[in-house]
Write a structure and sequence with these properties.
Blueprint lengths: L5 E6 L5 H10 L3 E6 L5 H6 L5 E8 L3 E2 L1 H9 L3 E9 L3 E4 L10 E4 L1 H6 L1 H5 L5 E4 L3 H11 L4 E5 L1 H6 L3 E4 L9 E8 L13 E8 L5 H11 L3 E9 L7 E8 L3 H14 E10 L9
Parallel strand pairs: 1-2, 1-3, 7-8, 7-9
Antiparallel strand pairs: 3-4, 3-11, 5-11, 6-9, 6-10, 12-14, 12-15, 13-14
Helix pairs in contact: 8-9
Length: 283
Amino acid sequence: MSSIKKKIAIQGIKGSFHHQVAHLYFGDAIELNECLSFVEIPELINTNQVDAAVMAIENSLAGAILPNYALIDEYNLKIQGEVHLPIHHHLMGLEGQTLEDIKEVWSHPMALLQCRTFFRLHPQIKLVEESDTAEVAQRIQNQQLRGVAAIASKKAAEIYRLHIIESEIQTRKENFTRFFILKKQNGRLDPPKNVNKASLKFITKHQTGSLTDVLNVFASLNMGLTKIQSLPIIDEPWNYAFFVDIIFDDYLIFQQAINKIQEKSSSLKILGVYQQSKRNYDL
């Protein structure tokens, strides 16, 4: 069974950051299903066309990707794990091209945002939003586009044989993106053996102090709250669901917390219980 390749959906193509995360988490025995948008991924998971998927959820510079929280919730996807990947953005083009030759840079909006300080120094360059960093690199090579550069990984430059014009152009050198590893609720992947982190969604009761009551549960049990994100509830103006990440040392204490939160909230959903990323990846 170990020789069977896992089918993994990613946003983007080979050379993308999602591709790198898939290899880091699953190893080399994988078959990629390349998607140019995140919205394609849930259907692939829930119809068993793939075993799992990689989905970016937040960046240390640009913040949370809110539509992806909504996709995970709407399609009842299960969080299997997480990976924190250091993001190194490189400006690349055809061999022989220099920065003075570049008139336009095409890349994913998040990549452009994470490199905004660099481009403030080069206002003559037009920035064009595209769906995937690596796909732009591939297109530049295939169509021999001169005067156009991509922002992508060193791996993309190697795969698509592009020249790196400027290295490390991200605004902050300590730039991480957090990715979720997702599967179907009853998916084929084995659950992680050691778990110490959970992602939850809850909706508070309509009374004063209800959010504080829920958050106090974590504090009272000495559980670390590492993330809280609100998202509007569809068809309920000015009402919000809260997505939180918590760290725990004892699974029994986590279960106690769940029981208490169920009492203090109008709705609770466990999105996933998994092992915390060690954040020690670097490529």
